[in-house]
Amino acid sequence: MPVRVLVVDDEALVRAGFRVLLETSPGLTVVGEADNGATAVRQCRALRPDILLMDIRMPVMDGLEATRHIADDGSIDARVLIVTTFGEDEHVFAALRAGASGFVLKDTPPEDLLSAIRVVAGGEALLTPRVTTRLVAEFVRRTSGRKTPVTAPEGLDDLTEREREVLVQVAAGKSNAEIADHFIVSLNTVKTHVSRLLSKLSARDRAQLVVCAYECGLVVPER
Fold first, then answer.
1. Which residues are annotated with the PTM 4-aspartylphosphate (predicted)?
2. pLDDT above 50 for 144
3. Fewer CB atoms < 10 Å away: N or C end of the chain?
4. Within its chain, how far is the Cα of 193 from the centroid?
């Protein structure tokens, strides 16, 4: 079955470019388009895509609010891949909080965009070290004047020492393969740890684990 993609952008030319790229790529198909977030949410419910390729700045409803609606709707099983630029760094943190599963930059090479879609469709979150660095910077900016710590999420105390270590690696933007190499364990072992982290922390996906790691103070970024 091909990966079903809904393209969401307020610029018709951008949507057309994505459609041509996706429709000519094996294993991917475009099931629809939307020019704003509100339409995207309706299309998502009607067309049941696997992935939404979502712009942030749009009229009527922006990509962040649309992502929040989709993540909160238990009847929708689609994942959101945000299209962003370094000029919109402040939105990365908000998009993760809203439920986005990953990010691609607008200057991403076509082959990398296609790979990103397949990664997210496969159940992984796409948080490259470049994006994670921006996320950390935004987190530091938001918390630099905070006087009270964020309440630790339920389930944090239930993590084993190794699960905490894996969570730190996830928060650093490391892939499962890189984590396996770091701890000299099998890839399946890492996948098991990540699966248990998702369950214990009630996280939607890997992206939410990153937010959790920074918000609860398990990972303290350099200021």
1. 55
2. yes
3. N
4. 19
